[in-house]
Design a protein that fits this description.
Blueprint: H1 12-35, H2 41-63, H3 76-81, H4 90-102
């Protein structure tokens, strides 16, 4: 078990930036899947739901409906079920979820 401390976002701007970075990483992963379909075949099954979950989160922040909560974000099931090699930005997703559950680190 990895005991790395997960550092939450310190501001709403940083939190939004983390989500934007995760969306960029999803795009990059999608490109990798298209480039090397055989090696990245497992990622094909989760990339769509992961992208939708992040886009929904981002949209809720843009339209002002976002609320911090004490439950995991929908994409955490994906994060827990796939290895770092399949999901290289897993730690970023954990940071986003940690901020979601515990609020900003101020």
């Amino acid at each position: 078990m990895n005991n790395t401390k997960i550092v939450r976002a310190r501001s709403s701007e940083e939190y939004v930036s983390m989500i934007e970075q995760a969306l960029d990483d999803v795009w990059d992963l999608r490109q990798s899947i298209e480039y090397d379909e055989e090696y990245m075949a497992d990622a094909r099954e989760f990339i769509g739901p992961l992208e939708k979950s992040l886009k929904d989160l981002y949209q809720s922040m843009k339209d002002g409906s976002y609320q911090f909560a004490n439950g995991d974000l929908p994409f955490m099931e994906i994060v827990e079920n796939y290895h770092d090699a399949q999901l290289p930005f897993k730690f970023l997703l954990k940071r986003i979820n940690e901020t979601h559950m515990k609020g900003l680190a101020v």
